[in-house]
Design brief:
It contains ten helices and nine strands. With about 290 residues, it is an alpha/beta fold.
Length: about 290
C-alpha cells in the first residue's frame, strides 16, 4: 500500500478571520483530571483553531479556565464524583451546534452516564469528531456503536485501548503487525479513521495508511495523548480530511517532541513541552 504524502494546511489569506480556521469544542475533564482537557485545549490553540471551547464539569470549570485565557469554558452538570452526568446532554447539544470539530475523552473519567453520553455523541454528531482516552473506554463497552458513526470519526487508541475496543476479536498475544491489520479492518468496516499510537504510529482509513516517523521515547509520559487529541481536533477544522488531519497531527506531535528533546533531553520532557514546541514544529513541518 503506497504511503500518502504528508498533508499541508491551506495558505492563510490576508483577509482571514477566526471563523475560517474552525471552532473546536473539547469535552472532558473531571475532578482531579482538569489538566488533561486543559492540555488538549492549549494544543488546539497552538494547532491553529480559530476558536476553542472546553466543556467540563462545573466543579472544575474555574481550574480549567485558569490554565489559559485564550480558550472559553462551558460548565456542565456533574455527579458527586465530579464527572459529567447525563443531564449535560442538552447543554452539550447546544454547544456542538456551533462547533466545526469536536474532541472527546481527555480526563473524562468513567461512569454509566458517561458511557451513554459518549455513545450519543459518536452516533449523532454530524461534524468531524475525535474520540480518545476515557471516551474509548466508554465505546469499548458498546462495540456495536463503532459501526454507527453519525459523521466523520477519528479514534486515537494506544494498543491497550485498541485491544479493549476489539473485545472478543482481540488476540491477547497479538503483536504490533497483527494489531495494525486489525486497525485497518476496523477502519474499513466502520468507515472511520484509526490512529493506533506507538512506535511508528499507524494512521489508516482502511484504504490508505501511513506510519509516522517522528517522535521519541521521551514522549512516553502522561498527557502527551491529550495534546494529540487537541491538535488533531484543531487540524480537522482547517480544511483537512479526517485522514489528513490525523496524519499531519501525528507528524507534528512527534516533531514537537523531537525538537523539545533536542533542548531538554528525553528524561525530563513533559506533555506541556510539546505545546511549547508546536510553533517550531509547524515552521519546520510546513516547509
Amino acid at each position: 500500500m503506497p504511503h500518502p504524502p504528508l498533508p499541508q494546511l491551506p495558505r492563510r489569506e490576508a483577509d482571514s478571520h477566526k471563523g475560517d480556521f474552525g471552532s473546536a469544542l473539547l469535552i472532558g475533564g473531571s475532578r482531579g483530571m482538569a489538566g488533561a482537557i486543559s492540555l488538549s485545549g492549549m494544543a488546539a490553540l497552538r494547532g491553529g483553531a480559530g476558536l476553542v471551547r472546553i466543556a467540563v464539569p462545573s466543579v472544575c470549570q474555574d481550574v480549567v479556565a485558569g490554565f489559559e485565557p485564550s480558550y472559553m469554558t462551558v460548565g456542565l452538570p456533574c455527579d458527586d464524583a465530579g464527572r459529567i452526568n447525563r443531564s449535560a446532554r442538552d447543554t452539550l447539544a447546544e454547544s456542538c451546534k456551533t462547533a466545526s470539530t469536536v474532541g472527546c475523552g481527555p480526563g473524562l473519567g468513567r461512569s454509566a452516564d458517561l458511557e451513554e453520553l459518549v455513545c450519543w455523541l459518536y452516533t449523532s454528531l454530524k461534524q468531524i469528531a475525535i474520540f480518545d482516552a476515557d471516551a474509548l473506554n466508554a465505546l469499548s463497552n458498546r462495540p456495536d456503536v463503532l459501526a454507527q458513526p453519525g459523521g466523520p470519526r477519528i479514534i486515537t487508541p494506544h494498543p491497550g485501548e485498541f485491544r479493549r475496543l476489539l473485545a472478543d476479536k482481540a488476540n491477547p498475544s497479538a503483536g504490533r503487525d497483527e494489531l495494525e491489520r486489525e486497525a485497518s479492518r476496523l477502519a474499513a468496516r466502520c468507515g472511520i479513521v484509526v490512529l493506533l499510537k506507538g512506535h511508528h504510529t499507524l494512521i489508516t482509513d482502511g484504504e490508505r495508511q501511513a506510519h509516522n516517523t517522528t517522535g521519541n521515547p521521551g514522549m512516553a509520559t502522561g498527557g502527551t495523548g491529550d495534546v494529540l487529541t487537541g491538535l488533531t481536533t484543531a487540524l480537522a477544522g482547517q480544511h483537512l480530511s479526517p485522514f489528513e488531519a490525523a496524519h499531519f497531527a501525528a507528524h507534528l506531535h512527534g516533531l514537537a517532541g523531537d525538537l523539545a528533546a533536542e533542548e531538554l533531553g528525553q528524561v525530563s520532557m513533559m506533555a506541556s513541552d510539546l505545546i511549547r514546541w508546536l510553533p517550531a514544529a509547524f515552521l519546520k513541518g510546513q516547509t
